[in-house]
Amino acid sequence: MTGKKPHRRFDSAVKDGLRNLPGYLILGAWCAFTLYLLSWVVAASFSTTKEIFSGNVFAMSSGVHFENYVSAWTTSKVSVFFGNSILYTAVTLVGSIAICAPASYALARFRFRGNRLIQVILVASMSVPGIMVILPLFQLVARAGVMNNAAANRVVLILLYIGTKIAYTTIFLYNFFTGLSYSYEEAAAIDGCSPVRAFWQIMLPMAKGGIATVSIFNFLGVWNEYFMSLIMAGSDKVKPVAIGLHSLINSMKYTGNWAGMFAAVVIVTLPCIILYLCLSEKIIWGVTGGVKG
């Protein structure tokens, strides 16, 4: 009897492997295809335009051209667009968490009149397409006369980015806070800790997995945002990377520096890849359940 158990486990493992084999093959093919595309873009950023159009990107017969990155960073104004996006994403992440974390905690922990209504309004607002509100917002911003003022234009973009993330961030953290046990707050109350202090010193640090997860999603949303910045950004001084890349692609009609464009693409994409690689475990931890009380 004891000798049959390992054999049965082995047969079960083989059957499970064969059953999941099509999924593994599809996933492996997709990963290989994605890695090929990424490696091709990176190789193109170090080659020349002639090599790109001749199909000899990986050969790099003319050597490795680091000057493509220098040209993209300086001549193509990628440094300006990159700095703007860093500013927008950093302030948006801090601002959205500062606003939404206390709000989501209050909705999850306290019962008051209008609690359910606020949740319904937040969820409903997430279903409203951005294109339906962007034009009225543009009219308000244009009437305020801030389109030609770079500093004021940046403030407007930041406020709009934060505003568009409030509903999603609040609902995401609300679901996360509801999964945390009440025992932590009860223990803090016994020790004489006020609800506000308990939130900032106990509950908020415990929600770091959810905060990291929603922050990465918000980062990607702001970093890759295109339509709102296309309408609201009044000059090159305030344009983020998405609009900057679009302008750079349009300029290829006249410059023909495709290698420099791929270098710009790598520069713009690199922060997203680094962020995900550094925080991938927290993303998985936050999405798959977080803290269980």
What is the structure about, briefly put?
The chain is an all-alpha fold and 293 residues long. It is built from 13 helices and no strands.
What does the model show?
This protein has 293 residues and is mainly alpha-helical. Helices cover 78% and strands 0% of the residues. The chain has 13 helices and no strands. The longest helix is centred in the first third of the chain and has 42 residues. The model has no long low-confidence stretch (mean pLDDT 83).
Cα separation of the termini: 41 Å
What is the CA-atom radius of gyration, in angstroms? 25 Å
How many strand segments? 0
> If you average the pLDDT, what whole number results?
83
Helix content: over 70%
Main β-sheet: number of strands, strand sense, barrel status? none
Low-confidence parts, pLDDT < 50 over ≥5 residues? none
Order of helices and strands: HHHHHHHHHHHHH
| Residue share in β-strands | under 5%
The SS-based structural class is: mainly alpha
Q: Can you count the helices?
A: 13
- Name the overall outline: globular
Please describe the topology of this protein.
Elements: H1 4-45, H2 49-54, H3 67-74, H4 78-109, H5 115-126, H6 131-144, H7 150-177, H8 183-190, H9 195-206, H10 208-223, H11 227-232, H12 241-255, H13 258-287
Helix pairs in contact: 1-13, 3-13, 4-7, 4-10, 4-12, 5-7, 7-10, 8-9, 10-13, 12-13
